[in-house]
Specification:
The protein has one helix at 30-35; strands at 14-18, 21-25. The protein has one domain (12-43). Strands 1-2 form a two-stranded antiparallel ribbon. It contains 1 helix and 2 strands. The longest helix has 6 residues, at 30-35. The chain has 43 residues and is an alpha+beta fold.
Length: 43
């Protein structure tokens, strides 16, 4: 059986500023944080 030679890498976090704090978030989640769909506190 053959296997792929590449490995998936975790996306590099992008710093965004929310509520006066700079937070590293994955690039695909930036729009959700900006719209307020995700809570940076995780509550």
């Amino acid at each position: 059986m053959r296997r792929a030679r590449w490995k998936a890498e975790a996306p590099k976090p992008v710093p965004i500023t929310l509520n006066g704090r700079e937070l590293p978030v994955p690039p695909n989640l930036v729009p959700a944080y900006r719209r307020g769909l995700l809570d940076p506190e995780g509550e």
